[in-house]
TrEMBL record:
Keywords: Repeat, TPR repeat. This is Uncharacterized protein. It comes from the Bacteria. GO terms for molecular function: Hsp90 protein binding. TPR repeats lie at residues 108-141, 142-175.
Length: 194
């Protein structure tokens, strides 16, 4: 595992775990639990062929699984926090999402979303700590790695931003914003190296 650091906060840039040898039956019900994630990540990592959108379904299913805390009350706090963030109210979002992670400390998506709220508020230290916690809980959290890359790029740390985006793309190679960021950062760093 490669370690990305911001100040004194280590962030683990995880590689995609190898897929399990078992395969899911074709008539399997919609994925609903963490037990389905290995199969979904294997599908997500596959290059897309023309007309094959299986990666889109896998990505959607992963994000849906990640959005479920396992508690209706915690899911409500999560929705309220995300809604506040969408409305530009970072302070309210931080409040709801802090209550969420206090009561559901194993819910990685809560940390990812609170990191976004902290970053929107200009609090990059707490944002980095939340991304580190999310990656500790779910090392394949490609949204956390992409968010980390964007934050590092905004801070001017191009080499570590590039590493974060590349780590995210190893897990989910179908992220246009991360693909564009890698190209942009490589070009910028090539210009700096000249």
């Amino acid at each position: 595992m490669a370690i990305l650091t911001i100040g004194f906060t280590p962030l683990v840039a995880a590689q995609s775990a190898p897929p399990r040898a078992e395969t899911a039956p074709a008539t399997q019900a919609a994925p609903t639990s963490a037990a389905d994630l290995d199969r979904l990540f294997a599908e997500l990592a596959m290059p897309s062929a023309e007309g094959d959108d299986s990666w889109r379904r896998a990505q959607s299913d992963i994000l849906r699984i990640w959005s479920q805390s396992g508690s209706a009350a915690m899911d409500l706090l999560h929705r309220r926090g995300v809604a506040a963030l969408d409305e530009g109210d970072a302070v309210t979002a931080i409040g709801h999402l802090t209550a969420l992670v206090d009561h559901a400390p194993d819910f990685a998506t809560g940390y990812v979303d609170r990191a976004a709220a902290y970053a929107a508020h200009g609090d990059f230290g707490p944002a980095a700590a939340d991304l580190a916690q999310a990656l500790t809980l779910e090392p394949r959290q490609f949204t956390a790695l992409t968010q980390l890359g964007a934050m590092l790029e905004d801070m001017g740390d191009l080499p570590r931003a590039l590493a974060a985006f590349q780590a995210s793309l190893k897990i989910n190679p179908h992220q246009p914003e991360a693909i564009d960021a890698v190209a942009r950062l490589q070009q910028a760093m090539d210009g700096i190296a000249l």
